């Protein structure tokens, strides 16, 4: 991974996301960005692999990734998150507990991400109340999204899950293989085929 030497090149996505919650100056953003590193990956490469130490939380600048657990006996994947431009992804438990990853995150396309260590995340939070506020709001949004997803998986039938996915992520539908969408929704590929044929 490479440190960021030219923050102007990658300013737009991350700064826009922070500005939407806690407006910051260009100088403040340059300081924030100096705590990140850049990582470029090819399609099918692992960003996080089960069993590995998780050092970074990643902000996606380019590309599409999937986060999943794999059944050790069957090898079947259970996808619980997709991540595209302007989204964050990592094994959060391993990142915060400094433990081995229990999930995999791999690239569905060529990707470019910005990574921040837990130490730098906490350092920025302690130094800049605007960044700490940004992290707090983003965490709350993440919890809300997870709650909605769990409710849908528990209470929603396959059709409702599919319709909710299309409504919430219309930009992902033609970007992600249908077998992966089926895994994310907890349905078979055949069930998904029947639903989008309607």
TrEMBL record:
- Top-level division of the source organism's lineage: Bacteria
Q: Which InterPro entries match?
A: cNMP-bd_dom, cNMP-bd_dom_sf, RmlC-like_jellyroll
Which ranges does the record mark as transmembrane? none
Name the Pfam families on file. Answer: cNMP_binding (PF00027)
Using the record's annotation, list all stretches that form the Cyclic nucleotide-binding domain. Answer: 39-121
Q: What is this protein called?
A: Cyclic nucleotide-binding domain-containing protein
